Amino acid sequence: MNMTKWKWLNMAVGKIRFAPDRNAVYRELEDHIEDHKAALLARTPSLTEAEAEEQAVAAMGDPEPLAEELAKLHRPWLGYLWRLSQVLLVLAVLALAAVTVLRFTGDIGTRPGYLWEALTWDYSEYFQAKEEVLRSRAVYRPAGRLEVSGYTVSVKEATLDAVGPDDPYSYRLLYLDLRIRPSWRGECMDLRWAVSSVTDSLGTVYPLGTDGGGKPWWGWRDADSWGDLAPLGQKALVTLWYVPEGVEWVELTFGSGELARTLRVDLTEEVEP
Fold first, then answer.
1. Which of 13, 146, 221, 261 is the most core-located residue (most Cβ within 10 A)?
2. Counting beta carbons within 10 angstroms of the beta carbon of residue 240, is it exposed (0 to 12), middle (13 to 18) or buried (19 or more)?
3. Half-sphere exposure of 237 (CA within 13 A, CB side)
4. Bridge partners of 250?
5. Which domains can be identified in the chain, with CATH numbers?
């Protein structure tokens, strides 16, 4: 009894258990039959389509022995391993893409334990003044960035608060929301050591430290409080206390000597909060 093309193909691939392999082999064998059929019709014009197909199928031989050989060749675990490798490759590419984007936008914190703080970082949460003692607030978005020792430093936003009752008991606080892209080593910048001086347009010098009894000083904090690694970028808040009236800019100097670089924060163009 002659076998139809569909029956022969199903028998030939029936023992291949990995579906993608089974479908691919099915299409390949079908192409062989169709090519042979076309050759027969070209060589013998008197043949009908059905006769040519029947002869082409017969020329392929017994499908049972072929099915056994194909099953040995296409082991299912090889197919599943190949598919798993594809999935892992895609995941690796996506992970690399995510790390690359975050690395160069500098908008995420570092350690997993502080990831939520980094993602939800809002420097206004650390404002010292409560609404009832806040006399005025000015917001600035200064342009410019600084390249120093492999780091890129910029100020996303600056907020200047006037706090307390009228003079002589009022004072002013300046908050600088920093973005720091790490060096090629992926290390967090420790602002305590990186910032060598903080000054303003009136010549005021702000030492690093704690409350100096009404004298200007500056302090800082990170989104990642531990700050030991920063492969994806760093967020930090620098606060200047007791800023004088009439200040038009402040400067943060990073490093010292010939390697010193200065980032100027302009405070003359106020924006909407």
1. 13
2. buried
3. 19
4. 200, 265
5. 5-74 (no CATH), 112-271 (2.60.40)
- DSSP secondary structure code for residue 131 in this structure: G
Contacting residues for 209 by C-beta, under 8 A, at least 6 apart: 217, 219
DSSP state, residue 246: T
Q: Tokens for 84, please give them.
A: 């798993």
**pLDDT digits (tens), the chain, 273 positions:** 478 888 998 898 888 877 778 888 899 999 999 999 999 999 998 989 888 898 999 888 888 988 888 887 776 666 567 667 778 888 888 776 665 554 444 444 344 444 445 555 666 776 766 555 778 889 999 988 888 888 889 999 999 998 877 655 678 899 999 988 876 666 778 888 889 999 999 999 999 987 667 789 998 887 654 444 455 678 888 999 999 999 999 999 998 888 889 999 999 999 987
Amino acid letter, 148: V
Helix (H) or strand (E) holding 70: helix 63-73
Closest to 171 measured CA to CA, from 106, 266, 119, 239: 239
Cis peptide, bond prior to residue 168, ω within 30 of zero = yes
Which structure tokens are listed for 194?
């990186």
HEC assignment per residue over 16-52: CCCHHHHHHHHHHHHHHHHHHHHHHHHHCCCCCHHHH
Upper half-sphere CA count for residue 25 (Cβ side, 13 Å):
23
Instruction: Map tokens 């099953």 to a residue.
Output: 71
pTM of the entire predicted model: 0.55
CB 196 within 8 A of CB 253: yes
